[in-house]
Specification:
Blueprint: H1 11-25, H2 30-37, H3 41-54, H4 74-85, H5 93-102, H6 110-119, E1 147-154, E2 164-171, E3 177-183, H7 188-201, E4 207-210, H8 225-230, H9 237-245, E5 248-251, H10 259-278, H11 284-303, H12 320-326, E6 329-334, E7 340-343, E8 346-349, E9 363-368, E10 374-378, E11 381-385, E12 392-397, E13 402-409
Parallel strand pairs: 1-4, 4-5
Antiparallel strand pairs: 1-2, 2-3, 6-9, 7-8, 9-10, 10-11, 12-13
Helix pairs in contact: 1-2, 1-3, 2-3, 5-6
Length: about 425
């Protein structure tokens, strides 16, 4: 039985075949056929000449059925799939494409990587979901007008390791990742450390957008007599520092309201986890070193955008020594008759004042810097200081209605010296 060749044609090519066949039969003129095909008269004549010479095959593109000249070779294809299955199994398509270019010196497009992975049965890392409708908030025009900060409790070293907390802050105008480090848990020490490092490097922002975590906002219904007379509750330790520096705190009522920092953590949970596993990093100090010496700079190179207004809104901070005395924990205290302060299970000796003066029964303010050192101030004058001691996370005491009691020692203080400068 004789077999006939089958020629695959598109709908447009089939239309041209019938029109040109009518031209050959004399039922249509070339001008009429060109108008029906929506092409020029000269192009219609070229198609007609090809049709007379080759028949229907002359209307099909010459490259149909042939491999593309720029297709990647079989060996390179297998190498990419092997890297995808083994070394970069935790990377999404875009991240994997960037790693191929940066680390493996393989230049392919993201669409090529996506197509290779899907045809090989590798599912996307995260399924696409239908987008919900939210009203977009315009970015601030200048860098430093608003900073967004938050913390993310996540298995940053993989499912085989316990969760820990990533503290991070971004600039609203540029999307730049200003600071990020890992801690055992979300705490006041972490937020104050974020603020100190941002202020030292960039300056003071005009405002900070944040959630209503108990470290950042008083959520209890208890009011002291002094608070009732003042008409407002005393701030948290972080809130008191922001007020002292003139930084306006802005509180989000829903996670969607701080969508930019939420999307930041979604990206970091994807990319940072993969890169920590790639570099075999599973401890907080090593991860913080990797963040500051490699990851943050690369992240900002990819995702940072220029601000609408090039003028900077960052404010000049106080000198470093003064800044460390402002961004700290603060507690009121009374000096005992033996010229000693008992605070958080610690004893702080108060030396003699001018002319042998005793500070017994004096009301003082005790400040604990982020490195753990205690500073005692009497009427804004430093009268005593100690070497660094363990830091305890402050909690609000309902009985005393003050931030004077503390929980057990926060591990966060143990990482102060491990954070890169």
């Amino acid at each position: 039985m004789e077999t006939k060749d089958i020629l695959a044609m598109s709908q447009r090519e089939r239309q041209r075949f019938h029109l040109l066949k009518m031209v050959v039969k004399g039922a249509l003129s070339v001008v009429q056929a060109a108008a029906a095909m929506k092409i020029s008269y000269r192009h219609a004549k070229r198609l007609l000449a090809r049709f007379r010479r080759l028949g229907a095959a002359g209307l099909v593109h010459g490259n149909r059925g042939k491999p593309a000249p720029n297709r990647i070779g079989h060996g390179l294809r297998q190498k990419i799939l092997s890297l995808s299955d083994q070394r970069y199994a935790a990377f999404n398509d875009t991240h994997f494409t960037q790693q191929l270019a940066d680390c493996e010196h393989i230049q392919v497009s993201r669409e090529t990587v996506r197509r290779l992975r899907r045809t090989s049965g590798i599912a996307p890392k995260r399924p696409r979901r239908a987008k919900r409708h939210f009203k977009r908030r315009a970015r601030k025009p200048q860098a430093g007008l608003m900073v967004l900060w938050d913390a993310s409790w996540h298995p940053w070293f993989g499912a085989a390791h316990p969760n820990c907390c990533l503290m991070a802050a971004i600039d609203d105008a540029t999307g730049a990742l200003l600071e990020a480090f890992l801690l055992p848990r979300e705490c006041s020490w972490g937020y104050l450390s974020l603020l100190l490092r941002i202020a030292s490097r960039y300056g003071l922002p005009a405002s900070i957008y944040q959630d209503r975590h108990s470290c950042l906002k008083r959520n209890d219904p208890h009011w002291s007599l002094e608070e009732q007379l003042a008409g407002q509750q005393d701030p948290t330790q972080v809130g008191a520092v922001l007020a002292d520096l003139g930084i306006q705190p802005l509180f989000a009522l829903t996670p969607q309201a701080k969508g930019r920092v939420e999307r930041l953590f979604a990206t970091l949970q994807d990319r940072l986890v993969a890169e920590l596993q790639l570099n075999a990093i599973c401890h907080i100090p090593a991860a913080n070193h990797f963040l500051h010496h490699q990851f943050i700079a690369r992240f900002n190179h990819l995702f940072q955008r220029p601000a609408a207004d090039t003028a900077s809104a960052w404010q000049k901070p106080p000198p470093a020594g003064r800044l460390a005395q402002i961004i700290c924990f603060r507690y009121p205290a009374v000096v005992a008759n033996d010229n000693c302060i008992r605070l958080h299970g610690q004893l702080i000796d108060i030396p003699k004042g001018p002319n042998g003066r005793s500070y017994a029964a004096a009301r003082v303010e005790v400040r604990q810097r982020l490195d753990g050192a205690y500073l005692v101030f009497h009427q804004a004058r430093l009268i005593a200081a100690t070497a660094p001691r363990p830091i305890r996370e402050p909690i609000y005491s309902r009985a005393r209605r003050k931030y004077t009691t503390q929980t057990q020692i926060a591990e966060s203080a143990l990482y102060f010296n491990s954070l890169p400068n």
